[in-house]
Amino acid sequence: MLSCFRGRGAYLPAVLARLALDEPLVEETLHRLDATAVRLGRGAPSRLLLDERAPTLSELVDEAPADLHTALFAAEMVLFRILTERHGMLPDVLLGHSFGELVALTAAGVYGLEEGMELVAARDEAFAACPPERGGMLALETSASRAEGLLVGLGEWEVALAADNSPRQCVVSGPAEPLGRVRRAAEAIGVRATALRVPYAFHHRVLAAVAGDFTRRAASLRPGATRHLLHSAILGRQVDDTDAVADLVAAHLVRPTRFTSAVRLLHAQGVGVFVECGPRGVLSDLVMATVPDVRVVAPLRRRVSGLELADALSGLTKAATASAVTGAGGAPRQRAPPGPFPVRTPAARLRMLHPERRRSRTGGPSWPRCGPCTRRRWGIRPRS
Predict the structure, then answer these.
(1) Does 150 score more than 50 pLDDT?
(2) Left if phi > 0, otherwise alpha if psi is -120 to 50, otherwise beta: which for 281?
(3) Cα–Cα distance between 72 and 65 in angstroms, integer?
(4) For domain 136-195, which CATH number applies: 3.20.20.210, 3.40.50.720, 3.40.50.1220, 3.30.70.250?
(5) What are the pLDDT digits (tens) for 2-15?
């Protein structure tokens, strides 16, 4: 099982309002994060996550980007705590997308809850201290390789690949003028292009000064040992020591997010269930576009109650036992049964492995022909 964390677009006003009515962890977590946010001189994230009159994503991008970032961090950490502490889910690996890499670091235990909020604040302070030139980002409905070929063909060296999201979607970033030329060229060859509401060219070398300042500020936070395996889509490898954490913080703003490659790699290593720890469910759609033969769960596609959240998570604990993910030392962490199975009952898995035993002549399951060891392994009781 994999838990993934998204970046700037994962905001839904009052997304935790219904969940807070019957889930004490919402109030407990937000109380801690509100206190930290106020201490750091910013607004309390609970106002954006619980109040139905909270501003929209567009309003926050234009007027209060720092508050948007704290709200994103808080919403994803609240959901992660509920999944792991309330519902007992134990993810095999964590994966962040863009800004979500900072949330994943906190969820993995590298930073405490309050320290994670301080890390987010340090990022915003770096932008304030080293304001970069304005820029933009453009989502293209095509593969990353085709997009890079387009940039080379146009000779637009100021525009760079920012995110490889799926086999059919990527994002490029750069200054506004060359980005406009890329958009017109893409539309001319039938590639749909959508401008993202961002003030800067994220994942671009133009943010090198900001990244350097962010790295220096983040150095004051001492990273701890990871409690969960963490894979970075930016570094393309596991984050399992302090050097890797420093590398990720330094590269977070200037290197592209290779989400497609990360999803394919982790799926090949046995991950069969992807749970999105954040609102809206965009990452879940990207995962399905990349590896369709998996189960994806986005519990906060909309505002849900505690009961609705439990229903959305039903069966995930059993499904997670089907994963076998390579550990930090290179050896696989075995799960039973081995292999990336979609969510199935034990009987359904047995039917998949032994199609010749699927039906008896009378039309019913023919499990009595299975040996006792097979029945015991798969938890199947013989018919009386």
Answers:
(1) yes
(2) left
(3) 11
(4) 3.30.70.250
(5) 899 998 888 999 99
